[in-house]
Amino acid sequence: MSDVKVGFVPLSTAPRGVLVVFCDDGLKLGPVTRRSLGAAADLVKRAAAASEFKGKSGSAIDLLEPEGIKIQRLIVVGSGKSAELKEKDFLKLGGVIAGKLNAASTEVTVMAEHSGGPMKSGQAAAIATGIRLCVYKFDRYKTRKKDESAALHAQVSIAVNDVGKSNRAFAPSAHVIEGVEMARDLVNEPPNVLFPEEFARRAGALRKLGVEVEVLDVKAMAKLGMGALLGVAQGSARPGRTVIMRWNGAKKSDAPVAFIGKGVCFDTGGISIKGAASMEDMKGDMGGAACVVGLMHALAARKARVNAVGAIGLVENMPDGNAQRPGDIVTSMSGQTIEIINTDAEGRLVLADVLWHVAKKFKPKFMVDLATLTGAIMVALGTEHAGLFSNNDELAGRLIKAGIETGEKVWRMPLGPEYDKLIDSQFADMKNTGGRHGGSITAAQFLQRFVDDTPWAHLDIAGTAMGAPKTEINQSWGSGYGVRLLDRLVAEHYER
Predict the structure, then answer these.
(1) Is the pLDDT reported for residue 243 higher than 70?
(2) What is the pTM of this model?
(3) Catalytic residue status for 223
(4) Which of 53, 94, 317, 320 is disulfide-compatible with 127, CB 3.0–4.6 A?
């Protein structure tokens, strides 16, 4: 388990241990950096020439025991054209730094200065965030770990122009990082450990931060008429749960913002059972619910000035003798009836009841749901973007902007009555699949029938929440996707 602490020190602090500095695509160093390196500054140009290092953003060279300065290692990280760097680029630079650290890197100094001079406090905070996100590991079940001395235990000191401003800039991010880590932990947990009741128990830990947490058991959900969710849950020996989390950070009279997560703790496909290949990945079919819990942690921990509701539907989709069958008809909480065509299209059934409950009980300003909903979205968008579907252009635009800023990108997909017709049923009000073509769209059309007039966005995160390719700031199977995206949405547009 990595233990990396990040803090800020004055730019004039003498470096110790490992020193990390930045240069641009002309190999130019900042003035304070050059003075700190002294004679060692000339080594950088010689090493760059020998290794064909051009200072491209994200590239790096590593010099051991450089002459002229009392440090163990000098890591030079390219920042490219410094004037063009965005916040997400500084996040990546932080991840690059973290990727260069090893067990010997117990003391690390990062000079937060580019060729033009000291970095801004927000840029330094982004580097700190990138480091913290990158070093996350989930290895709690490994009993045959390598020598513990090989684990990464480091104090990273980021040398900045203004320590106070940098600390203030990083403080909210530190809580968001905690939320991301919480979401990653939940997605990475094995399904025999994290089942609906245990998931609900872990969400209950948010009470320590002042979040109101209500857990609905099977009896309570049946009383509400959540027939769609309970239809999915009935095949498992482990009962389903719905968890409602409320953070009240604004005036009582303010309508809340709402986030809803699909929490299928394991998905066999039910009677319409999946193939055995890669079924183990279906422990991550609760990535949407994990994000909502992580987001609620972030909002409460940083004391966001907003009223927020987080709601998650937690089930297992199992194929026992009590499981629902293709051809069954269930009645949702909305009163609308649903013909089950394929029991592996279960996430939308869970979300249908939770969306309706949140819309009617809390009357939010908007609802955003997140779900590892369809393989079809991965065919369309791969693993670089989540699919965005929305009935509200303003909300969609704000999500797109937040995605660009944080690097948790979304791509808007279409909705329309032509697609809606594909889920009409001859036996019920609708069916739960619309056929092979446009599968992610017909799934969104299904959900739209349960939001009424509430501004709403659906994020299909099947390609981004689990098993996505590693990045500079995520080396984990469970990415925690969506926490930073939605925290940014709230911070920029909905806090008083």
Answers:
(1) yes
(2) 0.95
(3) no
(4) 94
